[in-house]
Design a protein that fits this description.
Elements lengths: L19 E2 L3 H6 L4 H19 L1 E3 L7 E4 L5 E4 L5 E3 L2 H16 L2 H11 L8 H29 L13 H25 L8 H18 L3
Helix pairs in contact: 2-7, 3-4, 4-5, 5-6
């Protein structure tokens, strides 16, 4: 609730809602809250803010996000001093991008990036498309691998973080990428078709912070 009588254009006074810091795993467990559910809820909450409303909390660090114990755990946001807004064309492009990734449709992904102003349709678009195809395929293979690991390990799968690649494994991975799309990456780099709209600054920052929160709740 907003206390309008104490608020002004420079100061927003809100009702205080008590809760547990979202990264306090021990306290959440003590209350019997499902941390995996809370991780999903945090992501769904942000997708709603960004894709449906185009207005989102731009500083979701653990000090600004809490959980109360009602209805299995509800998110509580504090400090609305840093908010971000997204124009309609960017919102529509993001939605199309998510659908494109889900459907493994490189052309739909590229069209979405063009809509958002991230990709300028100049030069060799075919090279960019092949690059998109490669990463979509890699993403799909990773999902299949994760599903297999989850089936084998059961509940233990979510108990720890994904093992980090060794230096040799990381080197081999880079080599595999370059051998597959190295030429396409060079062509794309020469054309410089990608842009980073200022609108995305807060979006990327928010999702980076959310990624850390999500991993503290559910390492996988």
């Amino acid at each position: 609730m907003v206390f309008w009588q104490y608020s002004s254009p420079e100061v927003l006074v809100l009702e205080y809602v008590p809760g547990t810091k979202i990264n306090d795993a021990a306290a959440l467990d003590a209350q019997g809250l499902d941390r995996q559910r809370l991780a999903r809820l945090a992501v769904e909450s942000y997708l709603q803010q960004i894709l449906n409303h185009g207005f989102f909390h731009a500083d979701p660090h653990p000090g600004n996000v809490a959980v109360d114990a009602k209805n299995g755990g509800r998110l509580v946001y504090y400090d609305f001093g840093m908010m971000g807004s997204i124009p309609g064309n960017v919102r529509g492009g993001l939605l199309e991008l998510f659908y494109g990734v889900y459907e493994k449709d490189a052309d739909r992904c590229l069209d979405a990036l063009i809509t958002m102003g991230v990709l300028v349709p100049t030069g060799d678009k075919l090279a960019v498309r092949r690059t998109a195809d490669f990463f979509l395929k890699s993403f799909q293979e990773r999902l299949i691998q994760q599903k297999g690991e989850r089936e084998v390990r059961g509940a233990a799968y979510s108990a720890d973080f994904k093992p980090q690649r060794s230096k040799d494994e990381a080197k081999a991975r880079r080599k595999a990428i370059l051998s597959s799309i190295g030429e396409d990456l060079l062509l794309a780099a020469n054309d410089q078709p990608f842009r980073f709209p200022a609108t995305f600054t807060f979006v990327v920052r928010s999702f980076t912070v959310l990624d850390g929160i999500g991993k503290s709740l559910d390492p996988r």
